[in-house]
Design a protein that fits this description.
By secondary structure, this protein is α+β, with helices and mostly antiparallel strands. It is 66% helix and 8% strand.
Amino acid sequence: MRGAVGWRRLDRESLREELRTNLWFVPLIEVIAAVILFVITYALDRAAFSGDFRIPTWALSGSPDAARQILTTVAAAIITVVGVVFSIVIVALTLTSTQFGPRMLRNFIRDPGTQVTLGTFVGTFVYAILALGSIGQESRNFVPHISITVTLGLLVADLGVLIYFINHIASQIQLPQVIAGIAGDLARAIEMQAGNAAASAAAPGATAALAELPGDGGPVAAPRSGYLQFIDRRTLVRIASQAGVVIQMTHRPGHFLVQGHPYARVWPAERAGLVARELARSHVTGPYRTLAQDVSFGLDQLVEIALRALSPAVNDTFTAMTCIDWIGDSLWKVTGNWQPTHVFCGSSGTVRVVTTEPTYERLVERSFEKIRQACRGMPAIMIRQLDVLAKITERAGRPDQRRLLLDQAAMIERLATVSVDEESDLADVRRAYQAVLDAEAAHAAAGTPVLP
């Protein structure tokens, strides 16, 4: 029974992500709401026609033919606008795929403003059609006056939604807005990772616990191929506690699993087969990466936009600088408190699950190396990267992290030396590099020197 509860929780997480990333779920809800609204207004119209109460003075009056003409005109206008809205969405998605990269499409599809706009127009169209079909149902002279009035009210609301949608799309396709949206999702993923780190034991406990285990453990093969999107750590702990085993996930969210290839190890090794089926229910795989538990994917998205901006075909230096700023913001959040290994214990305090995250070194490399390789001969990009490295170095209290940052800064300075011909520009780059060295010197003066 407890296993079913864990599976339902995992399934809800996966289902929530799927429902957010489509263009049919919210419109479907609004269509259902429109049908319910029509049922209510139609019941009121029938009651008014039977003489149970008087039609309100604000309700429109007229003959059945006039009512049909009004509703036909409204329905035709709404479906035309729906076509225009869909066309705008397709253009926006095409622009996104071309300019920002295909991985940004999901960010636009999951946009609530687009989903609500489509649902509002489709819901109004369905309501108008239902009202049109109700004319003459009770008798030849029956006119749903209240329903027609509500239809016109919905039409006015649709006009406001259309104005909002045009402004919303114009804002959403601006690169700074796109970049800030990705950075916001990344910040939430970092907060979630920090929560997992707080819930787990200290990372050194993993090394000690695994060192005491006999052998290499029993491998568990991946049940299906795809990107690992989500791991339910509570379910993993429950499975390990019930089976009396220790589970180490050798792959993390963002990794591609190959069916039949080991993705976890179990101690004692002879129990690996017993937990394999339950283990398959503790994670979600899919055809794409998501930001739910994959911090490095957010960095990759920002780096991808920066690389496209630096390409000769685009040559948009300022967009690349914006990406570097937000990358620096994300690394600032993880510097000093990042735990690449999480250890989860059972109710008895025994280590049961060990999971991994990308190392701090890997996050730094993802953030700077590809952009550095693409900015040859571009002092503005080099200076912005060095400015970000100086800020992060000020925060980095651990010597090993500062060593990584200094190495990145040194590589940028060497690239500038061989690729920047103008002495004035080269001097600006070296001043930015000196700021990184000064930040390290401040730590050294405080008694925390960098590792050799």
